[in-house]
Design brief:
Oligomer: single chain
CATH architecture of the largest domain: 3-Layer(aba) Sandwich
Pfam families: Aminotran_1_2, GntR
Number of strands: 15
CATH class of the largest domain: Alpha Beta
Helix content: 25-40%
Shape: elongated
Keywords: Aminotransferase, DNA-binding, Pyridoxal phosphate, Transcription, Transcription regulation, Transferase
Protein name: GntR family transcriptional regulator / MocR family aminotransferase
Family: In the C-terminal section; belongs to the class-I pyridoxal-phosphate-dependent aminotransferase family.
CATH superfamily of the largest domain: Type I PLP-dependent aspartate aminotransferase-like (Major domain)
GO molecular function, one term: DNA-binding transcription factor activity
Number of domains: 3
Length: 511
């Protein structure tokens, strides 16, 4: 009866069984036997209308216990692949197997499956798509930054200066009285009304914008805002012009949406955008308030030229204003969107650089039609950001705690910037060019022979974290830069940290 299990011409039953059954495997033996039999049934290796081998007979051939085969048969019966006929035995379930073997058994295109059932772990490398941005650099990540005594990083908070008490009050108030329901409800695709109104009334006017609530959507940080925009607007083959050097995470988001990236040069006046750049692009992605990573502010003349080029070529502009709120000298620079009269500038803001990046709260300001479409797209991805955090942030702004803490933060940043500049001038073995009085980092270009990537490695060995400049370039990476942030590092640690950074630079240049 075991002869009914017909092998290929030069293949024995034992050979076939060895492909599926491994006594050393951690997988239960009866499941291995069940998979062997299942594949044999699906491939039509059992003769129709003939009983299957008895459990005793099959156990002897496969070298397993009779109970193992019986357990496998029970699972196949439960799956409907075999059926029991009274006083006759077990048979292939012809109708069920015919359906399983049919190439178009269900509506829709047939899914191509491998011929044989795999015996080991799923090969996810074959199933997962390759990221379209695999050729791009990745932004430096320092998840262990708190272990380093001198973290010269712009994107992490100085923990000791966070307004913990005021924030805790806002969190507690958000769970009391009339605020409890907005904090805990399922808002479907809606945002917290208090927070949206606070943004319209308190956050946007200093940046030159006067908008209505239906022109604002809350996001899980600026990253989700860019992802939603790319998902909704960018089509395969579109071109997005990006600053070079620029924001690496945005490049990955646009590339994975199917876009080509076109580099825009940056100098002391910000990104240089010509009409030809706008003509070849569906989108321009810019950081005009404080360019990422050099911190230069785009001049008014450049901003006007960008808007003229975008309008003449019908390109859209995505303005990422990631840190204008924490400008430590002067008032926040009016946004590019505040100059826009055609509705083509999409403004992305975030609370990450002041409140905290871990809270993941940001927003988009755009035409009401686009906001409605983003809201619909977000609903089926994440619904909405945390209602509790939204209401707490709305209360934090409404009570004045936000601006009170922001003023203190600006004064503290100003002292840190001044200290950093004094120490860099003292410790660097070369002259430092003029540095923009804004942003949260200093972009340093070294002389001939300066290798920023090597400097970052040597500095890390001394407990000093800085970013190598080559990570921020889209094409032919430049290695003559480092970025020295001053948001995370305590004021009193700056002098010693710069001293050690200077040692690393001198060691690299002497190599």
């Amino acid at each position: 009866m075991i002869d009914d299990l017909r092998p290929e011409p030069d293949e024995t039953i034992e050979d076939r069984a060895r492909q599926y059954i491994d006594p050393e495997s951690r997988e239960p033996l009866f499941q291995q036997v069940r998979r062997f039999l299942e594949q044999s049934l699906l491939e039509g290796r059992f003769k129709p209308n003939r009983p299957l081998p008895s459990s005793r007979h099959l156990a002897g051939v496969l070298g397993v216990s009779r109970n193992t085969v019986s357990a496998a048969y029970q699972e196949l019966t439960a799956l409907g692949l075999i059926e029991s006929r009274p006083r006759s035995g077990l048979y292939p379930a012809a109708e069920r197997l015919a359906t399983a073997q049919a190439p178009n058994a269900v509506d829709g295109p047939a899914r191509q499956r491998p011929r044989s059932v795999p015996t080991g772990q799923v090969d996810w490398a074959q199933r997962l798509p390759r990221p379209l941005g695999a050729d791009l650099q990745h932004a430096a990540a320092h998840p262990d930054w708190t272990r380093f005594p001198f973290p010269f990083l712009p994107g992490q908070p100085e923990l000791s200066t966070f307004p913990s008490r005021a924030w805790l009050r806002a969190l507690n108030d958000a769970l009391a009285g009339p605020h409890l329901a907005p904090s805990l409800r399922d808002s479907v695709d809606g945002d917290d009304e208090l927070l949206v109104k606070a943004i319209c009334r308190e956050i946007l006017p200093p940046r030159g914008m006067s908008v209505s609530p239906n022109e604002v959507i809350i996001t899980n940080g600026a990253q989700q805002a860019l992802s939603l925009l790319a998902d909704l607007l960018v089509q395969e083959g579109d071109t997005v012009s990006v600053e070079n050097p620029g924001y690496v995470d945005a490049w990955h988001i646009f590339r994975n949406a199917g876009a080509h990236l076109h580099p825009l040069p940056v100098d002391g006046g910000g990104a240089r955008v010509t009409r030809a750049d706008a003509a070849r692009s569906e989108f321009l992605y810019l950081t005009p308030s404080h360019h990422h990573p050099t911190s230069v502010t785009t001049t008014y003349a450049r901003r006007a030229a960008i808007l003229r080029a975008a309008q003449s070529e019908d390109a859209l502009v995505i303005e990422d204003d990631f840190d204008s709120e924490v400008r430590f000298k002067g008032r926040p620079t009016p946004s590019l969107k505040s100059l826009d009269r055609t509705g083509r500038v999409i403004y992305v803001g975030t609370f990450s650089k002041f409140v905290a990046p871990g809270l993941r709260l940001g927003f988009v300001v755009a035409d009401a039609a686009l906001i409605a479409a983003l809201r619909e797209r977000r609903r089926y991805l994440t619904k909405h950001p945390s209602g509790h955090l939204q209401r707490a942030l709305g209360l934090f702004i409404e009570t004045g705690e936000y601006h009170r803490a922001l003023r203190q933060h600006r004064r503290h940043l100003s002292r840190k910037w001044e200290t950093l500049m004094e120490e860099l001038e003292r410790e660097l073995p070369f002259e430092l060019p003029p540095v923009p009085a804004g942003g949260l980092s200093v972009w340093i270009e070294g002389p001939e022979g300066f290798d920023g990537t090597r400097v970052a490695e040597l500095a890390r060995e001394r407990g000093v974290l800085v970013d190598a400049g080559e990570r921020f370039y889209l094409e032919a990476a430049e290695r003559r830069h480092i970025r020295v942030g001053f948001n995370a590092i305590p004021l009193q640690a700056i002098p010693r940290g710069v001293q050690l950074l200077g040692e690393a630079i001198r060691e690299q240049m002497a190599e």
